[in-house]
Amino acid sequence: KVIYVDGDLNIGGNETGYGILVVTGKLTMQGNFTWKGLVFVVGEGWAELGGGGGGQIVGSVFISKIWDNYTDHTLLPTLGSPHIQWNGGGTNYIQYDHCWADDMMNNVPFTPPPSTKPLKTLSFRILPY
User: What does the alpha-carbon distance between residue 52 and residue 16 come to, in Å, rounded to a whole number?
Assistant: First the structure.
């Protein structure tokens, strides 16, 4: 299942979800949330995780700042700096799981156009916590 939120998303309490989550605004996850699958925070490029509890993301998280705000969607001339903030205590974590990533992406209908030029990575960063 794909959940697309054009704007901010706040998840708290004991929420559980599976699939592909796409957020164009700010993503805030607090408490005992669980997400299994892919999380894309593309647009505002802002994620806040924490607030105590046992929150977990099992799969992959991609954060990319491509515009200043989600209301007018004006693209930046170059990629901006994404923001991730980790707050609170508890046992919150992000666990990379390629099985969730592979299974979710296999459900997305995408046929890349034929090209002699491979895709180019513009930016890559691993954030230890």
Answer: 16
Query: From CA 64, how far away is CA 82, in angstroms rounded?
Result: 6
Can you tell me which residue has the tokens 């309490």? 13
Mean pLDDT by 10 residues, the chain (129 residues): 92 88 93 91 91 83 85 83 83 82 73 68 67
Closest CA to 65 of 86, 37, 40: 40
Q: How many angstroms separate the CA atoms of 44 and 72, rounded?
A: 11
Question: What's the predicted TM-score (pTM) here?
Answer: 0.78
At residue 105's C-alpha, the angle toward residues 91 and 75, to 5°, is: 85
Q: Is 70 in a helix, a strand, or coil?
A: coil
Q: Which residues of 60-70 are buried (b: 16+ CB within 10 A; e: fewer)?
A: bbebebbbeeb
pLDDT at 118: 65
pLDDT value, residue 100: 77
With H, G, I as helix, E, B as strand and everything else as coil, classify residue 17.
strand
| 3-state secondary structure at position 106 | helix
Nearest 10 degrees: Cα torsion 80, 59, 108, 6:
-50
